[in-house]
Design goal:
The structure holds two protein chains of two kinds. By secondary structure, chain A is an alpha/beta fold. Chain A has one domain. In chain A, strand 9 and strand 10 form a beta hairpin. By secondary structure, chain B is of the alpha/beta class. Helix content of chain B is 32%, strand content 34%. Chain B has four helices and nine strands; from the N terminus they run H-E-H-E-E-E-E-H-E-E-E-E-H. The N and C termini of chain B lie far apart (63 Å). Classes of the chains: A alpha/beta, B alpha/beta. At the A-B interface, helix 1, helix 4, helix 5 and helix 7 of A face helix 1, strand 4, strand 5, strand 7 and strand 8 of B.
Chain lengths: 315, 189
């Protein structure tokens, strides 16, 4: 393949800077609480899918440009460092992916979603379609064709944290209004034509068991892959079950007053630090945020972050 | 004036990266310049069974920087790539009868996807290949994995197609090594 350079160094740098500024717009959207009572929603169609065919990787962003005060050259260096990290992560993950080749994450998610959503009164009669809605066009088609009053879309993804110390399962939950009466009560985000009755991002984080902090990435990946991926499979099963439970929990939360993202915590002492993905699809990196516990059981705690996200972590 | 032109061009390049129009990829197998008659005279005859596709969504490839990609011709492209694999040594074709073939290949597509990691794009192809050599039982099964990771410039169909073809070539190299092993050692390693 012949590759011919089109730009000089300055032109390429400018291009990189503009590209980086375009990517910086991909921030996590805050929660929209469900304020419409369930009996007013009525017939709902559910679409649940996993957006990746295999477990994904994330990388730490390079901060050379920020640390040096900016500049085109440093922006190019950042891009180069991040590309190198992405390549390395994709190599390190291979043993885990090979161990998970036959693992049916979609099937597990479908079972868990059916089990957790069926007790919700307005979702009892819901038709659940399993499969990814790839892109806005696919969603628009569903919204146009459906005869239901509302459409609940669950987009699930699963990936490693940048240091391979944890597996994260994330679901973006969007409830779109279809009927005219519901659309009048819904919220529109940006230029999106679809009207949202509810939105939130729910994550479950499972750390590599019995491993010291600061373990080398390759060693950590190999431990996840040991015994035909036993630890990775257990973490994914837990994560998929947890997000399904959190969907049912968060949809059942009472609405808030004055457009608040969520109800204030009753116990201000229950704060804890949890990792979340800094942006949703393709290009996630992890950051630590402080949140408050909203639910605990014997093994796990659910933490509400400032933007309203729910994160499930081991106690 | 020149600067304004350059800036406009660069903006077009950047904005094309924000393109979320679904794209359909047309994969191209590597061209074989060896004459067909010479291919058929190759010493080793390898029968190729129809490619099986086990993906749950057989057209969807995934999303790169917000742009969905799909392809419909992956099985055909894999078949063509195998047909052209070392044509002077092997004649790999569905036309070679299983009864007379020294080796029978069965290829199953397990995964084929593209995705992005920040400003990088990734393409992955995972195949299950069964090598059934005459007189040797049971057949050997091997998972072959090809993958590409590199910068995503503008999420164009051409560059994503190139990434996927790179992954396909890596799979072909691994399959060729195993076929070589079959004929050199008598069985795949």
């Amino acid at each position: 393949m012949n590759i011919t350079p089109v730009f000089g160094r300055a032109g390429l740098g400018l291009c990189v800077l503009l590209a980086l500024s375009a990517f910086s717009g991909c921030a996590t959207a805050p929660r929209i609480p469900l304020t419409v009572p369930g009996d007013q929603i009525g017939l709902t169609e559910v679409h649940s899918g996993i957006s990746t065919q295999e477990i994904g990787t994330t990388i730490d962003p390079s901060n050379v440009s920020a640390a040096s005060g900016g500049g085109l050259i440093f922006a190019i260096i950042d891009l180069s460092i991040e590309n190198s990290r992405a390549k390395k992560a994709e190599q390190i993950i291979v043993p885990v992916r090979n161990a998970l080749v036959g693992f049916d994450a979609s099937g597990l998610l479908a079972t868990a979603v059916l089990q957790e959503l069926s007790p919700i009164s307005w979702l009892k009669e819901a038709k659940i379609e399993n499969g990814q809605l790839a892109g806005k066009d696919a969603l628009d088609n569903v919204l146009k064709k459906t005869s239901a009053n509302a459409v609940l879309v669950l987009e699930t993804d699963y990936y490693f944290t940048p240091k391979f110390e944890a597996i994260v399962v994330t679901t973006n939950v969007s409830l779109y209004a279809r009927s005219a009466s519901l659309r009048a009560k819904a919220e529109r985000r940006g230029s999106d034509e679809a009207s949202l009755l509810y939105y939130n991002k729910l994550s479950a984080v499972s750390y590599l068991p019995d491993s010291p902090v600061g373990l080398d990435k390759s060693v950590a990946a190999n431990r996840w892959a040991e015994e035909n991926g036993k630890k990775a499979k257990a973490a994914l099963e837990t994560g998929l079950r947890e997000v399904a439970k959190m969907i049912a929990f968060d949809l059942a939360q009472p609405g808030t007053k004055d457009h608040a993202l969520y109800a204030s915590p009753a116990d201000k002492k229950s704060n804890r630090i949890v990792p979340i993905a800094a942006n949703a699809n393709g290009g996630a990196t992890m950051i630590n945020v402080s949140g408050f516990e909203v639910h605990t059981d014997d093994t796990r705690a659910w933490v509400r972050t400032p933007s309203g996200e729910l994160v499930s972590v081991a106690k | 004036m020149k600067r304004a032109g350059l800036l406009c061009f660069l903006l077009c390049v950047v904005l094309s990266g924000c393109d979320t129009t679904p794209a359909k990829l047309t994969l191209v197998s590597p061209e074989t310049t060896i004459e067909a008659s010479r291919v058929k005279q190759a010493a080793q005859q390898v029968s190729l069974l129809p490619i099986e596709d086990q993906r749950s969504e057989d057209e969807t490839l995934g999303i790169v920087a917000g742009r969905p990609f799909r392809t419909t011709d992956l099985p055909a492209c894999i078949t063509q790539s195998l047909n052209g694999l070392a044509p002077l040594k092997y004649h790999i074709s569905k036309d070679v009868p299983q009864e007379t073939a020294q080796l029978v290949l069965k290829v199953t597509i397990l995964k084929a996807y593209v995705q992005s990691i920040r400003a990088s794009k990734v393409a992955v192809l995972v195949l299950k290949v069964q090598f059934a050599q005459r007189g040797i039982n049971p057949p050997i099964e091997q998972i072959v994995r090809g993958q590409y990771a590199g910068p995503n410039w503008a999420s164009t169909a051409t560059e994503v197609q190139g990434a996927l073809q790179d992954a396909l070539q890596q799979c072909m190299q691994q399959i060729r090594m195993q076929i070589d092993n079959c004929f050199i050692k008598g069985s795949p390693s």
